[in-house]
Amino acid sequence: MPMDAVEPDTPPPAATDDAPRVINTDDGAKDGLAKCARCGATEISLNVATGNLRCGFCRFEWSTDNAIEAFNLNGDISALAGLLVGSGSSDIVPSTEEILTFKCSACGAEVVIDTNTSTQARCHWCRNTLSMNQQVPNGAVPDMILPFKVEKSTAVEKIAHFVGKRKFFAHPTFRAEFNAENVMGVYLPYMVVDINAHAKLSGQGEHQTRSYTVKVGDSTQQRYDADLYNVAREFDIHVNDLTVESSSDRLDQNTAVNSNNIINTIMPFDVENSVRYDSNYLAGFTSERRDSNLDQLAPLAHTQAEDITRHRVNDTLKFYDRGVRWAAEEVDVRGQRWVSAYLPVWLYSYQQRKSNGKTFLHYVAVNARTGETMGSIPLHQSKLLLVSGIVQLVGTVIGLVLVAVGI
Amino acid sequence: MLNLTLLAVESGQILAAGSSDDDSGGLGLVFLLSGFVFYSAIYFRYRNTDKRHGHESETEATMVNMQEHDEFVKARKGLSNRRMSGANNTAVRGASNKFSAGIMSKFKL
Questions:
Q1: Can you tell me the ipTM of this complex?
Q2: pTM of the full predicted structure?
Q3: Do the domain assignments include residue B33?
Q4: B90:A323 CB<8 A
Q5: Which residues of B touch A266 (CB under 8 A)?
Q6: Nearest CA in chain A to B32
Q7: Is A72 near chain B, with CB under 8 Å?
Q8: Is-cis flag, bond preceding A147, omega within 30?
Q9: CB contact, 8 Å: A248 with chain B?
Q10: CA-CA distance, A191 to A343, in Å (whole number)?
């Protein structure tokens, strides 16, 4: 094996101050009536086909700045040092209200916005739409938003197709009640993380040199010869757009009690196409508020960065075809950049009521950028057990015959 | 029910591994577990409890300034496992869906 050593570049300076530096992402953001620049209407929503915001009255369309460019989030990851956070990712202050009241500047009425599900509300008197775009420390307004790109009709087709291929063993109540048209567009909260780290891994690896069979009693068994090596790798790793859920509900992925893993599965998103936050992107959709702080999410993100490091370094370990056993793994995070984002998901949900009185929420989810679809379909257990029993009976007969003849 | 599924999956894996080392009666034993294997296959197809985002492979990352050290230690003969004992270079520890990460690492290792 060749010995290969490359002189590393000078590492970025370590952060001298533990306090995070903040990127202000709501400069110029205003709460209240957001009006069409051409006609002054507040009926503004996303045109999914173009990705632009569109006035519902005069059909005027405009785009919002790309958030990555506007906040310089595509800067060199190797230059990252210390902790850099978007202002929309700041810690949630528990005393901050979730239900906020705004005064409608068109008619003076008081309008309530429930930030748990949206950052917009319609004035009940004058019917204008009020938007909340300024960040308050309750996790409702993120640093950026990735608009829906997959149309509802496409999502309905994908969900219907996914479920259609899984109907035979589906629970009869689900089959009777399923209607893909009930899909909802939801912006879910995530943290997008860039990490600059230095990694040192050491251990042992094995390379197979021979494979052969030996006779043991009446049977033959496979045996292997291998060369054992001490292996070490040291390098810098730049992780780009690592995405983690920032809702405590979604982070709980115990598949015995929920199907949140379905929503996790449809990642990744093309977060590089996110735009500056504008509540008008939420019109016609719902949203879920971030309720987890960076301190709670950092251990998960760092463990995932270690996984990425361990898997990426396998590119240099192809010689060790029997695997590598790392005895020591050090991934030293030198710099990290966190921004919060709303990412778009088409979500079909079905609450299954079980015979024991418990309920289970099944999801079929479509990534509203890539169209990736995944779902959990309630099973007709008695039917599946019956068919499995029949398969077992037939298999047992065939198996006994095969064992008897020694196959 | 989850334990039953796990048992079936792991049993199938053990049998499959066994059949590669010792080719007598392996296929017959697989048939003897056909009901469990069928149940597991349908369960996973419908419920997808084994699915998760593959952050370890689906996240963009670049390595720079690589320093490699590889030193021959010794030759080992007559090993019975196809994979190195204790190999952990494909381990995943940061998956929120622990069930999925556990199953996948069992199949990889």
A1: 0.85
A2: 0.85
A3: yes
A4: yes
A5: 53
A6: A396
A7: no
A8: no
A9: no
A10: 10
